[in-house]
Amino acid sequence: MTNAALAPPAPPDTYVFLGPNLPTTARIARDWLVGVLRGTGHHELAEAARLCTSEVVTNVHVHARTTPQIIVEARVAEQWVLVVVYDNRPHPVTEVELGPASPDDEHGRGLALVDSFADSWGVSTPRRPIPIYGGPAPMKKAVWFRLSDDARGEAA
């Protein structure tokens, strides 16, 4: 056995996007993340990441009006990416927000889309940290999702 086999995995590289809480920020954030993923060799995750980022950032814009800025953090490892979107809305996502949308609803499908494209996702707070290696617990609420090169992180 070599020393390399005993070494822990390298920590992920972290990239951070900071934008104003405006309707255009979701588009800018998703395009930024696609650039990060393509630049780090994760081309196959780009479309799923684009969709998930757009949905989560849009949710912050629509539901967290007290957030003056939207922070998107991408933790990029060799085999996966973890995307964290922070807001300062003090309470977590509720079951009502996660419930299914009716066919006539114009809203309400965002987190269901994230659930279908991401390998895992969740909501974290300082008391409930993100259960994935890399980075400190959020100081505010954060919605995160993880996409893996070897899992279902590909848009169909």
Describe what you observe in this structure.
Helix content is 31%, strand content 24%. Strands 1-2-3-5-4 form a five-stranded antiparallel sheet, covered by helices on one side. It is globular, with a radius of gyration of 16 Å.
Topology:
Layout: H1 3-6, E1 13-20, H2 25-39, H3 46-63, E2 69-76, E3 80-87, H4 95-98, H5 110-117, E4 120-124, E5 141-148
Helix pairs in contact: 2-3, 3-5
Q: What's the alpha carbon Rg, rounded to whole Å? A: 16 Å
Counting copies of identical and different chains, the oligomeric state is single chain
The percent range for strand residues is 15-25%
| Tertiary shape | globular
Mean pLDDT: 80
Tally of alpha and pi helices = 5
Order of helices and strands: HEHHEEHHEE
- Largest beta-sheet characterization: 5 strands, antiparallel
Number of E-state strands: 5
What are the main properties of this structure?
5-stranded antiparallel β-sheet; 5 helices; 156 residues; alpha+beta; disordered C terminus
Question: What can be said about this structure in brief?
Answer:
Helices cover 31% and strands 24% of the residues.
